């Protein structure tokens, strides 16, 4: 038995929270081992917010290393415990209890379970540029057949073969995949929506004001980072700033972003992805399902006030955690922490858990986006409060 398998077996026996790192990718999984076999491991996974996030089969050949202790796992254990204490809800109901047998290949068992129940899955393969989502429609000895669902393009209706030898990860039974299953029940009626995008030709404030008036769901792309975009509803806008009430990839409330209007690249008001997110959001509302009920989803902002200055002052007084993106980022991840030394023209962000010497100073004019009020900043604020 090699070291990785031995570590997985030990983690299962001792019910250890672990991190599973993969070869050549930055993504890793945090969770508890449910089953181990010759072809891979099934983990009950958790999101960064400490919420149970379904399950993942990870092929043994894809695993680079296992972590069973360390600061990251301590932090995740705190978040899981906090989510449990505050009664965060991962899904409306517990996942189906489907047994797995260690003496048989796990991938075949998981794939067959998903085929029988018709649940949506996510596949990560060696030879695919992107993750593949959809429903498993056939399971064979060496491969499975996937009816692909592309939430960004409803015209993508492929049925493809996924060889077990190329499959790295198979995720299933997370909340977002549960929502995808519900949406796929209506697949026959889904129609493609051509993407309707408004570029910012020095008129982003007018575009955002129109979106605010109609309360429509929009996607906002920033000039600095096209890979990530903001999805939500505009609740306040003036010539300099817009406040967006965000939703996450499962249609749940995702906090707020104060976005500089001049930093907007374009605004998408219609697309297949927005249709998907609108369905996810409405599903949660129709079923009165809120994952993180402690968050303030009804906050109001005055467009005539100093939006940035007021938030920074509030953050310094009450120890709020913000995620700040400035003009000097140049592709570097935004910094998350608490504001300090706030004055009329500048402020310092002290990273969570660091001392004041580690702070990064921003001029107010450099700030492109300031995000707050989401589950991640809430958990950081609570952790700081508990430490005190």
Record the SSE blueprint.
Layout: H1 3-13, E1 18-22, E2 28-36, E3 40-46, E4 52-59, E5 63-67, H2 71-85, H3 106-117, E6 120-125, E7 132-139, E8 143-148, E9 159-163, E10 167-172, H4 175-184, E11 196-199, H5 204-214, E12 218-222, E13 229-237, E14 241-247, E15 253-260, E16 264-270, H6 272-286, H7 307-318, E17 322-326, E18 335-340, E19 346-351, E20 360-363, E21 367-372, H8 375-387
Helix pairs in contact: 4-6
Report on the architecture of this protein.
This protein folds into three domains: 1-188, SH3 type barrels; 193-294, SH3 type barrels, CATH 2.30.30.100; 306-387, SH3 type barrels, CATH 2.30.30.100. The strands form two sheets. It has an eleven-stranded antiparallel beta sheet. A ten-stranded antiparallel beta sheet has the order 5-1-2-3-4-10-6-7-8-9. The model has no long low-confidence stretch (mean pLDDT 92). Helix 4 (175-184) packs across helix 6. The chain is 26% helix and 34% strand. The chain has eight helices and 21 strands. The protein has 388 residues and is of the alpha+beta class.
């Amino acid at each position: 038995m090699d070291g990785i398998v031995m570590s997985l077996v030990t983690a299962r026996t001792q019910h250890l929270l672990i991190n599973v790192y993969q070869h050549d990718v930055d993504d890793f999984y945090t969770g508890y081992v449910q089953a181990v076999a010759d072809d891979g491991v099934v983990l009950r996974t958790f999101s960064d917010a400490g919420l149970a996030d379904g399950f993942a089969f990870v092929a043994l050949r894809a695993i680079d290393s296992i972590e069973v202790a360390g600061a990251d796992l301590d932090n995740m254990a705190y978040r899981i415990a906090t989510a449990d204490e505050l009664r965060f809800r991962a899904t409306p109901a517990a996942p189906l209890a489907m047994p797995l047998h260690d003496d048989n290949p796990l991938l075949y068992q998981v794939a067959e379970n998903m085929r029988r129940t018709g649940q949506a899955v996510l596949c990560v393969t060696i030879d695919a540029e992107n993750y593949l989502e959809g429903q498993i429609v056939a399971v064979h000895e060496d491969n499975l057949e996937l009816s692909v669902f592309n939430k960004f393009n409803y015209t993508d209706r492929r049925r493809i073969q996924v060889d077990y030898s190329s499959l790295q990860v198979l995720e299933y039974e997370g909340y977002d995949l549960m929502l995808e299953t519900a949406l796929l029940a209506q697949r026959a009626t889904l129609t493609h929506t051509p993407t309707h995008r408004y570029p910012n030709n020095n008129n982003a404030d007018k575009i955002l004001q129109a979106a605010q008036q109609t309360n429509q769901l929009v996607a906002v792309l920033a000039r600095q980072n096209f890979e990530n975009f903001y999805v939500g509803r505009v609740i306040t806008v003036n010539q300099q700033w817009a406040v967006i009430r965000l939703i996450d990839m499962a249609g749940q409330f995702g906090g707020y972003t104060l976005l500089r209007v001049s930093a907007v690249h374009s605004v998408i008001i219609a697309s297949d992805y927005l249709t998907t997110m609108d369905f996810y959001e409405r599903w949660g509302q129709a079923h009165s399902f809120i994952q993180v009920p402690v968050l303030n989803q009804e906050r109001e902002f005055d467009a005539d006030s100093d939006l940035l200055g007021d938030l920074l002052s509030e953050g310094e007084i009450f120890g709020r955690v913000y995620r700040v993106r400035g003009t000097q980022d140049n592709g570097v991840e935004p910094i998350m922490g608490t504001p300090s030394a706030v004055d009329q023209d500048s402020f310092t962000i002290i990273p969570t858990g660091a001392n004041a010497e580690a702070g990064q100073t921003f001029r107010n004019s450099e700030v492109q986006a300031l995000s707050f009020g989401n589950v991640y900043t809430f958990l950081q604020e609570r952790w700081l409060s508990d430490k005190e």
